[in-house]
Structure formats: structure tokens, C-alpha cells
Amino acid sequence: MFISGIVLISSIILLVNKIIYRDSEQLPPPPPDVNIIGHGSNKSILHQPEDPFISNSNTHNVMLGKIREAIDIGHSDSSEISEGIQLGKEIYKLINNKDWGELMNFINSMQQISSEVLQIILYHALQQDAPLSVVIDLLNQGATLPGNTIFMLVIKGQLTKIIELQNYGLDIFYSEPSIGNSVNVAVKYKSKLSILNLLLHQGVSTDIRVNGLDPLDIALSDYFKNGKNIEVVSKLIEYDSAIELSHIQIVESNRESELEYYNNLVINIPIFAR
User: Fold this and answer.
1) What DSSP designation does 212 have?
2) Contacts of 234 (CB under 8 A, 6+ apart)
């Protein structure tokens, strides 16, 4: 019996997601919630749970239900599921081992591979720091970049990929209410100054507040913890981050307790002097 496309896609998504999310130290946003059985799904729409850094197990349960449904109506059987799972295991192994040459040979050897599966492979390949050439190859074969890919690249400090992948649909302006945009992420996760500079130079906003805090609030608070990374504060102000009451309050609240850091701040950034 031929291998059902439904089972093949579902098995790969289930296996690769469950194993990689289980083994990863930091949980990334989940991949797209794909309508496996239907053919009219919008592949550009991402499933976005309330916390984008936590995998949504309900998506996996839905996919399992669809596999069981396919079996019940006679479109598949247990041997097909086993074969699909074995395929998923092989793909996971190659990604986890960062065996990029073999991964691409494996993908190229398959007669048909859906864009949904390619997108899952791409996302986890990015998680494992796949070379830019591998990422571009997957994109050229039909994968697409989820909107929140920029967050991962910023956190990982991958400047070259941020620059080059804008030619393949990378959205540096992407934002989510609970996270903000790429500047919020760069400041919060202390990304490379060169990445923050690139984002600011390309016009990513410094004004988005998350839980009441904008990037300059975060940068000032971090500065007063150890007196480091004043360059981040300076860079945000250089790119027209408006000085607001919350920023002044942070500075003034640390004036006496962190006098050395305060003096250094006002010497380098006189706008905070009072």
C-alpha cells in the first residue's frame, strides 16, 4: 500500500516537534498549525499561542486525531504510520547531528516533499544553526520563513543571516504583543550591538512597550545592575528613542544607590543629568 501523504506529513511534524522541543533548552515559537488534510490552508498564517516561546501541545493532539481519522476511514494503516515515523526520525537525526550535507541529499532523494514539511525542517535547521547555504536551499525548494524567525536570529546573534535572509522574506519588523519587535528582543536578550545597530538603522521602532516597558527602560535597568552596556542606551537614544518619564524615573531611582554608574551615565549621555 502506498504511503499516505497525510500520515507522512503528520508523522514528521509530530516527531520532529516533540523530540526537538523536548531536548531544547529554550523553547522557541511553534511552527505553523498546518491543515494537514485540507488543501486550501494559508501557509503564511502561523499558530501563535499566548506565549510564543512555549510549544502548544494541543496542536500535536489535533494532528494525532487526524492520523487516527485517516486510519479509520481506510486511508492509511499502522505500517504507513511506522514508515512515516521512521522518516521523521531520520530527518531529526540528521538535523540534530548537524549533518547538513546528508540532510540535503536525503531531501533531494525524496520524490515528493510538501512545503509544510520543508518549513518544519527549515525552522529546526535554523534552531540548530544550519549554514546559510542550507537555509537558502530549503527556501528555494519551497520552505518559507515564519514571521518570528527574526526573534531566533537576533537571540542567536546571527547578523549575516539577518542581512541575507531579508532577500528571502525575513521580516525584521515582525512583532507580537507579548514580546514586542526585534529591537525589544535584541535589548532584552542582550544581542550583539552590531545587530541592534542594523535593526535601528533599518528603521525598526524603539517605541513598542511590553508589560509597560520599552527597550530604553530595559536598557537603563540593565545598565544600573552592573554598569555595563551603556552603548545600548546610547545607541537607542541616537536613533530617536524619546526620553520619557519612565526613563527619568529609572535613572533618578538609582542616583544615590548606584552613584558611580549614575555619574558615568550623565557624563556619557548628558541628557540624563539633572
Assistant:
1) T
2) 268, 269
Biggest alpha carbon distance in the chain?
79
Phi-psi region of 211 (alpha: psi -120 to 50; beta: other; left: phi over 0): left
Cell of 78: 499502522
141 neighbors 119 (Cβ within 8 angstroms)? no
Q: Are the CB atoms for 188 and 155 separated by under 8 Å?
A: no
Helix and strand element counts for the chain (H, E): 14, 0
- Nearest CA to 12 out of 127, 108, 117 is that of 117
Share of the chain above pLDDT 70, in %: 69
22, 125, 151, 200, 246 from 29: Cα distances, Å: 13, 14, 9, 24, 30
End-to-end CA distance of the chain: 79
- Are 163 and 195 in contact by the 8 Å Cβ rule? The answer is no
How far from the centroid of its chain's Cα atoms is residue 60's Cα?
19
Check residue 7 and give its pLDDT.
43
What's the predicted TM-score (pTM) here?
A: 0.73
Rg (CA), the chain: 23
How many residues can be counted in the chain? 274
pLDDT, residue 117, reads 81
Q: Do residues 147 and 31 make contact, with C-beta atoms less than 8 angstroms apart?
A: no
What the block records as the C-alpha cell of 199 is 535593526
Residue whose C-alpha is closest to residue 219's, from 194, 188, 241, 191: 188
